[in-house]
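Proteins fold reproducibly. Next comes an illustrative record:
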Amino acid sequence: MRIGVPKEIKTHEYRVGLTDVSVRELTSRGHSVMVQAGAGLGAGILDSDYAKVGASVVDDPAQIFATADMIVKVKEPQPEEYGFLRADQILFTYLHLAPDPHQTEALLKAGCVGIAYETVTDRQGRLPLLSPMSEVAGRMAVQAGAHYLEKIYGGRGVLLGGVPGVDSGKIVILGGGVVGTNAAMVAAGMGADVTVLDKSPARLAELDYRWAGRVHTLYATAHTIESQVVEADLLIGAVLIPGAATPKLVRQAMLAKMKRGAVIVDVAIDQGGCIEGSRPTTHTHPIFEKDGVIFYCVANMPGAVSRTSTFALNNATLPYVLALADKGWQKALRDDVGFRQGLNVVRGKIVYAPVATALGLPSYDADPFFEDGSF
C-alpha cells in the first residue's frame, strides 16, 4: 500500500502522523511511504531520518494526497486540504466530526473512507487511540490552569499547592475518565485541593482507593456540580461521550457565580465542550475572558508537547496502521469489531450513529460497504 504523511497545518500543531520508527515497520513489510518535507521537525524527526528507513520525502502535499492510498495524520483535515481527498482513499486520523458540520460535509463530498482515532475501541470497550492524548491533555490541563491563575494573566493569583498557613487552590474536575484521572494525579501531586465528579459509582470508588482519600470524589448531579463549580479556582472539563457532542454540564447561571479570576480548562472542546460559553482557541490565542472568568479551550493541547505526544500516539496507532496497510480497510475492520467502530464516513455516508445524531443527518448501516470488495 502507498501511505502518505502530510505535514500538519493546524495552528501550532507540531505532531506528525508517523514517526521514522513506524515508517520502518511499514517499509519492511513492502509498503511505500511518502512524507512531506519538514513534517516531523516539530517532533524532532528529521527528513533524513525518514529517508534512512525507506520513505520518500517530497515538498508538495498535493502530491502526497494524489498518490497515497492511505493518509495518516494527527488532526482533522483543514479546509485547505479538503479538495485533496479522494473517493478511494483511507483517511486515518482524529476527526471529531460531531461538532464540525463543515468538515463532515467535506468528507462526505470527497467520498473518502474516514476512520477516526477517537472512536476505535478495544475488547474492553476502551478508547486505545484516544487514551494517549487524553493522558497528555489531562496532565497539561493542570499546568495550563496553574499558569493562567497567575495574576499577571488575569487570574486570581492563587498558587495551587498553597504554602504553610495558606489554603491550597481548589481544583474541580468534571469526569473521572482518562483525562480526569491524569489531571487529578498532577493536581494531587502539586498539593492542590482536588475534587472529581463522575456519574459512575464504580469509577469514583476506584479513584478513592487509588488516592486513599487525598482526592475527593462526588457523584455528579446538577446540585453537586453547581456547589463545586462556584467554589473552584480551576475547573477542568473532562467529559467524553465517544464520537458524540459533549453535553453542557455547566450552564451560564453557574458561571456567573464563579470567583472572578477563576480559570476553566475545557479539555472536551474537541467534541464541543462541556461548559457553556466554551469555544475553541489556539496555542496562538489560548484564552479568552468572559464575565471575569478565564477560559482555556485549546483544541490541540498535546501539540504543544509534540515529541512526547507523537511517540505516545504512534505507540497506540501503529498496530492499526499496519493492519490497514497489510489487509486493506475492509478486511482490517471486519477482523476487529472494535477497530470497525472507528469507521465514521464512507462513500458519502455517515456510518457512525452518534455523529449523525449530533449533526441532524441520516446514519447508514456500514455492512453493505464491506461486501463488494472494492477499494
